[in-house]
Amino acid sequence: MRTGPLIAATAVVALVAVPAADALLDQFGVKTSRLYEQQPAAATDGGAEYFAWSQNARTRKNHFDAFLSRTGDTRVKLNRKGLGYIGGIDPPVVAYQQVVEGNSDLKLYDVDTRARSDPPAGVNTSNWEWEPSISGDWLLFARQTNSAQFVILRSLTTAAKVVLDQGRRFHHAGQVSDDYAVWTRCGKTACNVVRRQLSTATDTVLARPADRFQYGAAVTSTGIVYVARSSPKCGGSVKIARFFGAGDAADGTVVADLGANGWDLWSAYARENDDESVDVFYDRLLCGGNKADIYRVHDPHPGP
Known about the structure:
Neuraminidase; 4-stranded antiparallel β-sheet
């Protein structure tokens, strides 16, 4: 039985389509079937589009598999056994989570060679490893032990490892992209998003209104961050805010509104396009319900 934070969160979170206000960016449905679809990741490479996601089965609502599609290729189920959950993509490699008999480990899949492999020794332990993201030499992931939660950055080619954050309360790995990594850190009274610039080892806690939480972060290779912002209650007027883009205020710019009808999100993933626009993929979850779809927001001119 899965006991990690993801199941606990998805059990109380879920979403529906809500039209965006005129001043905001449009939201587009990507995966909107009757299945529970979540944890999107996307990338482009040489004209090919990669898209990965997790979804349950029609006959087994609590069984999730991780899937990958690439332009011109047949869809691939990544987890060979157990449960599968998507992490991140750096073409042609995809990082994902595989849960077998209550043990959660991280796996890598090479789309070109169709080979599955383990990350370097020391990444997978008897603890709960989950939510991987990949960029170049770096693997970002979270680990849960009996006493603490960790956000870890690990080199795929050397023994280099950096513990970015840790604590007894919820810590959620977001996305790593080139020189930047983002994650969620929750304390007694609030959840914040932190951005690390890897080359300078500089952490920035993103500003937020005092009565709002921020979580579910995605980041681009230039350091632009997209986060979910809501009241402490699930589905509490959830919005997507952008930081470090052209003209963004210190406390971010709201670029999308999920509405006030109990919709929330769990994770987001930023894909940079050849025309310098950004597509932010996210799972829309209905709080207290049993519905999740994948949507995206297209940001044509994020800057900087």
